[in-house]
């Protein structure tokens, strides 16, 4: 499955549009509490544990999006956009969402 932020793929033709596909992953408040408690993991103002959790959430969202595209018969997702939003009471959770257009490339 080819996944790209561009709206075209050089050297390939879009044969068919399969529609909008999305994927989401949510990190709960306990993740934040656990990660901030691990102060020893913070180096140079960055938290490796927090970054790993964000990467994991991003990977889940992208894989969900790709699975939806596969189920529609697509072999690529173009125009992919990743968003990070706080949700829940007082922004207690972080949602990572991926969206794009499922297409069949020739």
From TrEMBL:
One Pfam short name: YbjQ_1
Ranges in coiled-coil conformation: none
InterPro entries assigned to the protein according to its UniProt record, in alphabetical order: UPF0145_dom_sf (IPR035439), UPF0145_YbjQ-like (IPR002765)
Family: Belongs to the UPF0145 family.
Record-given protein name: UPF0145 protein ACFSCV_12220
Native organism: Methylopila henanensis
Lineage of the organism: Bacteria, Pseudomonadati, Pseudomonadota, Alphaproteobacteria, Hyphomicrobiales
């Amino acid at each position: 499955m080819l996944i790209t932020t561009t709206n075209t793929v050089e050297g390939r033709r879009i044969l068919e549009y399969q529609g909008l596909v999305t994927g989401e992953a949510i990190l709960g408040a306990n993740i934040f509490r656990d990660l901030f408690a691990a102060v020893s993991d913070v180096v140079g103002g960055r938290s490796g544990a927090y970054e790993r959790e964000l990467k994991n959430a991003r990977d889940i969202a992208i894989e969900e999006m790709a699975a939806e595209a596969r189920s529609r018969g697509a072999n690529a997702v173009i125009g992919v956009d990743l968003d990070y939003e706080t949700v829940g009471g007082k922004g207690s959770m972080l949602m990572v969402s991926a969206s794009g257009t499922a297409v069949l490339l020739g």
